[in-house]
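Researcher: Structure for this, please.
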Amino acid sequence: MDWKKKGLWLDFEMPIVELEERIQTLQDSASVRGMDVNEEVERLRAKASKMGKDIFAKLEPWQRVQLARHPRRPTTNDYIHFIFDDFVELHGDRMFRDDEAIVAGMASLGDRKLMVIGHQKGRDTKSNIRRNFGMAHPEGYRKALRLMDMAVRFDRPIVTFIDTPGAYPGVGAEERGQAEAIARNLREMSDMPVPIICIVTGEGGSGGALALGVGDRIFMLENSIYSVISPEGCAAILWRDGAKSKEAAKNMKLTAKDAQKLGVLDLIIGEPIGGAHRDHEAMSREIKRVIQETLAELEVIPINELLDQRLQKFLDIGVFEESGKS
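Model: Predicted structure, token format:
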């Protein structure tokens, strides 16, 4: 299989991929010979389904990291294509340039008009260079803020898709105010008088993720991650050894389940068996359903109350109470 040769499958996926190859080979052979292999095909499919459930129910944190970075995982543009109608992309921060690591624009979801903003990675080396691997410069975050302000003027809810290793750490980005751009987004998003839904779809890396991550509801896909630093960066700082990335991932509490336990998010959105990369349309349908239900819930809350709830939501993160005397 070409995908296998190109390295587009992870090691722990290979037993499933190989079984699916057997199914395809059997069907192709039966088609040529005019044989009825439906019973055998169904048996193998049931076996593949069970194998997938068993493997993905026992994933280690590092394997979740690998899935969050999977080269075939849906991107913001994929979700825009499958979920929204009438998307009109808008460009530029009106200060320096257009940052293609951030995709943003107006769109429709049924009768609702929204502003959709998200990090955008590439599919190959060329497109990843163009998109800077989803790592935005300050102008990307300023573009996002400009369009969020536009959403407020037109009274449109905001939906953000978060998938970035982090904000770009280059000298030029720092010279143009990377930290200030992120901080301004945090401040402004906390007080925007429209419903805001934030969805971590892949990597939620550090301030680069937070700059699109202040909202009324924070969701994560089942195999996404959210952390202050990458496992590789953590391993380099703590042990000066990148080989300890797996150990770092285990201790960083970066999975969706960890974030839910810590009160960082509101809901884990389940993925198709095998991960979102195996069925972009099914994953998009589930996200669409969650967005529609959440907007219906948020739109009936008075704005002043919504803003109070949003502020309290973030004030509560990291607050712990003693359960008894030591």
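Researcher: Any notable elements?
Model: The chain has 15 helices and eight strands. The radius of gyration is 21 Å.
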